[in-house]
Amino acid sequence: MGYLELKGLRKSFGGLPALDGLDLDLSEGELVSLLGPSGCGKTTALRIVAGFETADTGHVVVAGKDITSVPANRRDMGMVFQAYSLFPNMTAAQNIEFGLRLRKAGSGERSKRVAELLELVGLGKFGGRFPHQMSGGQQQRVALARALAIQPRVLLLDEPLSALDAKVRVQLRDEIRRIQTELGMTTLFVTHDQEEALAVSDRVGVMSQGRLEQLDTPAVVYREPASAFVAQFVGVTNTVLGRSESGAVRLGTFKLATDAAADLSDGSDVKVIVRPEDIGIVEHEGEPNGALLGSVLTQSFLGPVTRLVIRLDGDEQTIRVDQPSNIAAAYPPGTAVALDFTASRFMVVKA
Amino acid sequence: MAVTAKPPRKIAGTVLRVVVLLVLGFYFILPLVAMGEFSTRGINNTRSLDSWTGIFEDPDLVDSILTSVELAVLSSVLMLVLLVPTMAWIRLRLPKLRRVVEFLCLLPLTIPAIVLVVGMAPLYAWVNYFLGDSPLTLTFVYAVLVLPFAYRAIDAGLASIDLKTLAEAARSLGASWGTVLWRIVVPNIRTALIGASLLSVALVLGEFTIASLLNFETLQVQVNLIGKRNAGLSIAVSLACLVFAFVLLFLLSYVGQRRRATVVED
């Protein structure tokens, strides 16, 4: 039994389903991300946990207690919002102590707690500043401190980083993770940024059309996607169109032997999904030899790896291949190459 | 080219601005100066402050001034109490009703005062029966009368903050709806509230038709009455009233600023 449990949550807006039976369990101290494209229901799920929306059916349970019908202000949830949400008429310190004041904490306790929290989010000297005197990143740090001040049972993060610029985003996301681990705070993190989700989560739930497609550790979600949707949404993938043929998949002159094709009837269209780093490459000259052949179209240098875009012989499909940059240098545009992903991970699905 | 072309254009702009300012300033100031001049006329081309000192010697006038000021304050308060929670709630929870409420609030603007009175008179028979015939009962009409102006001002204030996010943030921290309204909404739209109150005060202090037709002795009714026997006094009161409104404007904006400054010191 989890610490935070979402049980069979359903919600529709004007007849359009936003959540279609969502079940999710978080253990105490765990950070789980809900990842998905916009409109997949992840924010709706979070808002139902926060108490800002009511589920049509289903329950939210925290520490064994059903809070489905508890109003938002009695749920003890700390929430950080996507939009800047600091109270403009209060300083950073006053924002942080707002929840403590409502809980009738004494002034000594309040100022001690505010100082601790400002220190925790790295803004020790900013207590006297108003929101408009702070940068976006600083405002979100204060918002985090404000949410943590009430010692919430669950921390809810609703895309708190998406309004920030790239560098601050990475910095703050690592800091959120550090603080969350330090405090052992059970956290539900909603994001559409897969890199963010993979980087900070204990588990990632990939959502699509109001349902969880997969819920697992970042490594498993990345390496062993449960569905074509997950494979395509998380990380960079190639989708190559082919045709099934006697228990294998034919891509041009190349036959990819795979068990996955066994259940498909001959001649049906299939998609082969494979990640750029899972494809081997060798230079190829002369006649076709049954391998997947193509020629390098472009190279883009990404630092440690270089991404080669390869046009497959015989059709217009292109495929992206990541190679260590020092090796990729040997394949300038125009080079004829043979690709190999027979040994690596790939996924075959019906087109 | 651009550099040489700019100064003449700039000069033309400045000249235009000065001309507009002079014309408008003249338009506004001239009547005030004329009122001041007229109200200080003495016998045989002398200057005298008799009309001005007369203001405080006329007990009916002093009474009516107090009545009008009380009415202005009460109407502003009633308007704020009615409008701020309603408008905030509609923005937060019932956005579909926004158009309806806006329409309702603008209605008093489209109904002539005389029509309002015809409708109100029977109602006021009851109000006076239950609450006595104090002129302060005019508060109810006036609070309705100022709705169109106050609505606009408060609506602009609410639109300038991210009300939904701020309210949700406060809710998640444990705030009741009352706390959200009092601690979050009101302080952040203070300027709009001051503007709405000021409009209400100005409107109530200047209102004549309804008070006169319902037979209440407010300031403007008195001024009209006095005007029939002592023009100098009525002009002095009117000018004082205008100046009072200006001072009020100044004071209210000053109060708004001072409050903010104290917060910085904390």
Automatic annotation (TrEMBL), chain A:
<dbReference type="InterPro" id="IPR003593">
    <property type="entry name" value="AAA+_ATPase"/>
</dbReference>
<dbReference type="GO" id="GO:0015418">
    <property type="term" value="F:ABC-type quaternary ammonium compound transporting activity"/>
</dbReference>
<feature type="domain" description="ABC transporter">
    <location>
        <begin position="4"/>
        <end position="234"/>
    </location>
</feature>
<keyword id="KW-0067">ATP-binding</keyword>
<dbReference type="Pfam" id="PF00005">
    <property type="entry name" value="ABC_tran"/>
</dbReference>
<dbReference type="InterPro" id="IPR017871">
    <property type="entry name" value="ABC_transporter-like_CS"/>
</dbReference>
<dbReference type="InterPro" id="IPR013611">
    <property type="entry name" value="Transp-assoc_OB_typ2"/>
</dbReference>
<dbReference type="InterPro" id="IPR008995">
    <property type="entry name" value="Mo/tungstate-bd_C_term_dom"/>
</dbReference>
<dbReference type="GO" id="GO:0016887">
    <property type="term" value="F:ATP hydrolysis activity"/>
</dbReference>
<keyword id="KW-0547">Nucleotide-binding</keyword>
<dbReference type="InterPro" id="IPR050093">
    <property type="entry name" value="ABC_SmlMolc_Importer"/>
</dbReference>
<dbReference type="InterPro" id="IPR003439">
    <property type="entry name" value="ABC_transporter-like_ATP-bd"/>
</dbReference>
<keyword id="KW-0813">Transport</keyword>
<dbReference type="InterPro" id="IPR027417">
    <property type="entry name" value="P-loop_NTPase"/>
</dbReference>
<dbReference type="GO" id="GO:0043190">
    <property type="term" value="C:ATP-binding cassette (ABC) transporter complex"/>
</dbReference>
<protein>
    <recommendedName>
        <fullName>ABC-type quaternary amine transporter</fullName>
        <ecNumber>7.6.2.9</ecNumber>
    </recommendedName>
</protein>
<dbReference type="GO" id="GO:0005524">
    <property type="term" value="F:ATP binding"/>
</dbReference>
<dbReference type="Pfam" id="PF08402">
    <property type="entry name" value="TOBE_2"/>
</dbReference>
TrEMBL record, chain B:
<comment type="similarity">
    <text>Belongs to the binding-protein-dependent transport system permease family.</text>
</comment>
<feature type="transmembrane region" description="Helical">
    <location>
        <begin position="136"/>
        <end position="154"/>
    </location>
</feature>
<feature type="transmembrane region" description="Helical">
    <location>
        <begin position="104"/>
        <end position="124"/>
    </location>
</feature>
<keyword id="KW-1133">Transmembrane helix</keyword>
<keyword id="KW-0813">Transport</keyword>
<keyword id="KW-0812">Transmembrane</keyword>
<dbReference type="InterPro" id="IPR000515">
    <property type="entry name" value="MetI-like"/>
</dbReference>
<feature type="transmembrane region" description="Helical">
    <location>
        <begin position="192"/>
        <end position="211"/>
    </location>
</feature>
<dbReference type="GO" id="GO:0055085">
    <property type="term" value="P:transmembrane transport"/>
</dbReference>
<keyword id="KW-0472">Membrane</keyword>
<dbReference type="Pfam" id="PF00528">
    <property type="entry name" value="BPD_transp_1"/>
</dbReference>
<keyword id="KW-1003">Cell membrane</keyword>
<dbReference type="GO" id="GO:0005886">
    <property type="term" value="C:plasma membrane"/>
</dbReference>
<feature type="domain" description="ABC transmembrane type-1">
    <location>
        <begin position="65"/>
        <end position="252"/>
    </location>
</feature>
<dbReference type="InterPro" id="IPR035906">
    <property type="entry name" value="MetI-like_sf"/>
</dbReference>
<feature type="transmembrane region" description="Helical">
    <location>
        <begin position="71"/>
        <end position="92"/>
    </location>
</feature>
<feature type="transmembrane region" description="Helical">
    <location>
        <begin position="231"/>
        <end position="252"/>
    </location>
</feature>
<protein>
    <submittedName>
        <fullName>ABC transporter permease subunit</fullName>
    </submittedName>
</protein>
<keyword id="KW-0997">Cell inner membrane</keyword>
<feature type="transmembrane region" description="Helical">
    <location>
        <begin position="12"/>
        <end position="30"/>
    </location>
</feature>
